[in-house]
Every structure is written in C-alpha cells, then in structure tokens.
Amino acid sequence: MEQLENVYFPRVSQYRFCQLMIENLPKLREDIKEISMSDLKDFLESIRKHSDKIGETAMKQAQHQKTFSVSLQKQNNVKFGKNMYINHDRIPEEKNEIVLKHALEEEDENEEEVLTVQDLVDFSPVYRCLHIYSVLGDEETFENYYRKQRKKQARLVLQPQSSMHATVDGYRRYFTQIVGFFVVEDHILHVTQGLVTRAYTDELWNMALSKIIAVLRAHSSYCTDPDLVLELKNLIVIFADTLQGYGFPVNRLFDLLFEIRDQYNETLLKKWAGVFRDIFEEDNYSPIPVVNEEEYKIVISKFPFQDPDLEKQSFPKKFPMSQSVPHIYIQVKEFIYASLKFSESLHRSSTEIDDMLRKSTNLLLTRTLNSCLLNLIRKPHIGLTELVQIIINTTHLEQACKYLEDFITNITNISQETVHTTRLYGLSTFKDARHAAEEEIYTKLNQKIDEFVQLADYDWTMSEPDGRASGYLMDLINFLRSIFQVFTHLPGKVAQTACMSACQHLSTSLMQMLLDSELKQISMGAVQQFNLDVIQCELFASSEPVPGFQGDTLQLAFIDLRQLLDLFMVWDWSTYLADYGQPASKYLRVNPNTALTLLEKMKDTSKKNNIFAQFRKNDRDKQKLIETVVKQLRSLVNGMSQHT
C-alpha cells in the first residue's frame, strides 16, 4: 500500500479509478488494523488459556536442571573428599555414583524433549500487529492496549481459587499460571523492541510478588498437614528458582519461606504431640525385659544405653527404662529429619540449618514432649509404680540429649569446631517432668494413706483396748512397706522425701482423727487402743523403710502424737503444767489447746461414770483434779491468745 501510494499512484493520479483507490486506502488500513487486532485478541485469549501449560513446562525444566546440579554436586563431593551436602535422605555415599548416573541418563533422554516458550506459543500475531501499528504510526496505541490487557490478565492469574489451600494441585495450578504469564512477558521483552520494557516487567513483577506473598501467607495459614506444607515449600522453591532463571528477583519469596517454616514446625509439633501421646498410652511402665543377646542388641540399637554392670549380667535381664524411652528417642530423631526436609533448598548455610534444627528440636522437647509428660503424670490411672518408672525414664532421656546434639551435628555435617550454636534444652524438660512426677508421688501417696485412714472404725467408748493394733493400720503399713520397696530404684532424696512426707501425713491424719469436732467422747480404753496403733507407726518408722535417714529422724514424724498420748496415759499433768514453756520439757510438743480439746472429750464421758472407773475407786477429788487441769489449760490457752 505504501508503494502504491508513494510510487505508482502519482503516475496515474489523473484517472478517476485511481482517485477512488486513493480514497479507499485509509479504510483499508483501518480494516488491516482491525483484523490484526482481532488476531492479537485471539492470541491474548490463547496465552491466557495456555499459561498454566507454559508455566508447567518452565518449572519442570528448572526442576530438572536443579536435580542435575545437585547430583553433580554430590558426585564432586565424593570425588574431592568434600562432605558439605546435607544428606537428609540418608543415601549412603557409595550410592552417589548411581544417583549421578541416573541423572545423566535422564539428561540425555530429555535432551530432545526440552521445549521453549516458542514451541508452545505462536507469537506471530503479536509481531504482525506490532509491525502493522508501527508502520501506521500508531505504535503507542498498540503498546497501551497490550499492556492494559496483560495487566488485566495478571490480576486474574493472581486471584487464587478459594479452596486452593486444600490440595497441592491447587497451589501447583496457581504457580504454573503465574510462571506462564511472566515467561511470556520475558519473551516479549527480549524479542520485541519497546512493546514491554524492563521497567514495566519489574513493576508488574513487584505488584505480583506482593499479591503472591499475601495470598500464600493467608492460604498456608489454613494448612494443618505438615506433608502438604512441605509440598507447598517445594513448589515455592521451584517457582522461585524458575522465575529467578528469567531474571526476576525472588528474595522476598525465600523470606516468606522462613515464615512458612515456622508454621511447618507448628504442624510438626502438633503431629508429634499425637505420636508421643500414643507412645505413652501403649507403654506398660515396666523395665524392658530381654532374654537373649539378639533382643539386647535390638534395644541398644534404638537407644544409646551404656551400663557395664547390665552387660555382665546373664540372661534373662531387664533394662531400667520402659519401652517408651527408645520409642521417644527414635521419634525425636524422626522429627529432626522432618524439620530438616523443610530447611534444604532455602539458600542457607549448613551452620544456619544446624541452628534452625536445634531451635525446632528445643521446641519439641520443651513444649510438646514436656506438655505430654506433664499430662501423662497427672492422669488418674497413672499410679505410684508408673510414676516411679516415669522418673527413671526421664533420667535416661535426659542422658540421651547429648547423643541428639551429636546426631544433629552429623546430619548437617557441621564440624565440631564450628558448633557454637544453640544447645538442646532437654535437660530442663526432663528435670521439670521429673519434679512434677515426684510431686505427684507425694500427692498420690497421701491420697492412698487417706483411703486407708477412712477405713478406721474405732469404738471410742471402749473400756479396754483390743490388745492388738487396728486392722486398717496394719494394712496401711504393709502397703507402705511394699511401695517403698519399689522406691529403691528412685534417687535417694526422692525416696526419703516420699517416706518422710507419708509419715508426717499419717501422723497429721491420726491427730486430726482424735481432735475431730464431730467426735464428742473418748474413753481411756480408746486412747490406749489408739496408742497401740501409734506404736506400730513408730516401729515402722524405726525399721528404716527407706535407707539414708539419720538416727530417729523418721520417728520424729510421730513425736506430737507420742507426747500427747503419754501425757494422757500416764496422767502426768503436774509435770506438764510445771514444765510448760521449758525447752527441756518432757511434753514440749503438746499444745495446751490440743490437750484441752482431748481432755474435754474425756471429761464429758467421766460425768457419765462409764470411763474413769478407776478414779471412782479412790475419791471424788479426781473429778476435781480434772476440773482444775481444765481450768489451768484454759488459762494457758487464753494466755497464748493474748500473747499472740
């Protein structure tokens, strides 16, 4: 048309047909523009539909390239004696040759299959349309239209499906469409002059990146499955690597991955809380029995246990810990592997990854495992023998923490010299759990004592004692003897504290029984029967149920009861009243209020002439003596209250 207009038409312009043709040229030009624009619209619709295929191809190529590079790196590490690659998948070094061989074979096989964006998309409508608008001097209109339409498409591509977070395929479609979009823009940038500029694509990418990060942050927060979060992370890495290969900056995506990593660890912690609960639920809380060398080796292959004395023992024999200990140890290692899976490909050094692993393992120990242990300890069905075993178990898990530290160092291949990072806080976790178990032992022991004491059935008006200790008390003492046998496996201080706590609680319970406000009358025969029971308590305390007590330390738990009962049975009021307040008093531990309360219960019965029969044989002065003692005791009590 240009040639006609500029070369030929001037030669024949005098003819009328020529004038008609000249007049039609602008309309023809517009028709051509419209047709080319229609082709462009078809092209834009086509790439919108096929952008996910374009993106999928580009991401596959990026992933393939990365796999090959990693395989090559592994091969070089073996070849040159380097050990810098994190062996997260536990592939032995000798297998690296095979890995590389397969990678090279795949590279050869795929050599012919590598598709470029031009293979997938016919860009000729863009070239034609751009050329036509340029020739017609309307290039700016074309550029504005193209950019405006592509920005609209970008906004559509960046809008995720509402259920995207439910499956990995939802995320994959989202990423492939975005990659496809920018691969096309990158191609247009490089093969056309000025249709899009680097500044334009950078602006578009920055807008897209902000939207992508917001979308991923929102959708990933719904995810509770660590496997899905891990797949998402792998997709983001491939997505980032692909676009980085096309020159787009992706640092913000790796920063986002650090946020998602924290969330991944949270999902792992929740998953492992369930794992730990199941392990504790299935444990029988008995030492692990082994009948032969093979069984012995199986246990020590799962858990780092060393005890020369146990090794020397003949079969059958028992490990001190129960089966939950090796299972917990194995699962902590599995958690570390799972945590490591996320840390790879994050463009971080081995030292940083080592530090991240330690921090996440610390959370597992101090928060998840600690919480599970504390919940276990407080469960109603966990009895005293189970609590003793839990204390023993925590001691062995605590000792295993140093092996977990070495394990992390080994899988991240950090040299011992460079380890100056976070230590594991397992020691504090297991100490806390142990202290909680100890407190629970003291509480449960006291509860058991209460159960026995509630079975007491004294005849408080008996005239003569039975001559032997009460059945409930003998049952209680037999129970305490058997339970303290189990306590021999506990650290000395715990066993001693439990024993002292039990004796003190028993003494307090017996004293409360005597002084109970519901109990109105007590005979001397009942006091003598009660004394027989207290003698059994003292005999138990003196028999050293738990080793390590000095002298009569344990018997002193019953000293208040002993002095009170002696005072009443000997009827030694003159000594008590004369020596009251003296440090060397024989009845130093008898509170006047306590003595008064008990004497009031006995005075009431004496009035009915059915208790103090021995006093009637003498003279009525005995009654007066009681009244006198009561008055003097009240005087002491009043003096104490005024002094207070």
TrEMBL record:
Q: Does the keyword Transport apply?
A: yes
| Keyword annotations of the record | Exocytosis, Transport
> Known InterPro entries for this protein?
EXOC6/Sec15, EXOC6/Sec15_C, EXOC6/Sec15_C_dom1, EXOC6_Sec15_N, EXOC6PINT-1/Sec15/Tip20_C_dom2
**Gene Ontology cellular component list:** exocyst; plasma membrane
The keyword Transport is assigned to this record: yes
Start and end residues of each Exocyst complex component EXOC6/Sec15 N-terminal domain = 1-59
Gene Ontology terms describing biological process: Golgi to plasma membrane transport; intracellular protein transport; vesicle tethering involved in exocytosis
Q: Which residues form the Exocyst complex subunit EXOC6/Sec15 C-terminal domain?
A: 253-601
- Signal peptide residues on this chain, from the entry's feature table: none
Role this protein plays: Component of the exocyst complex involved in the docking of exocytic vesicles with fusion sites on the plasma membrane.
* Entry's family note: Belongs to the SEC15 family.
Q: This protein is called what?
A: Exocyst complex component
Which source organism does the UniProt entry give? Carlito syrichta (Philippine tarsier)
